[in-house]
Design a protein that fits this description.
By secondary structure, the protein is an all-alpha fold. 64% of the residues lie in helices and 0% in strands. It contains 4 helices and no strands. The N and C termini lie far apart (30 Å).
Amino acid sequence: MTDQSGELTPIKPARIAQEIAKLSAARRAGEIKADMYDQRFARVIQELRGRQIDGTRQEIVAALKPLVDAGDITEKEQFRLLAQLGMRP
């Protein structure tokens, strides 16, 4: 997604949560192995770093909280995402 100036559209926290949940579900279902999961997780982080995030740390945590509460992602995955984005508490 790009705007008219050619820049990438900032990513919403809900979209970040959706991508992490999808990746986590694939790992839990056995569709991808642990090493491939780590590679894909790192790729997601790299892509996020290359684009602007349209939200604060608190908004990202709020988007991830229902997923953590439901068991769709682990607290470890949430922490890892925030830490690798430089959004530690």
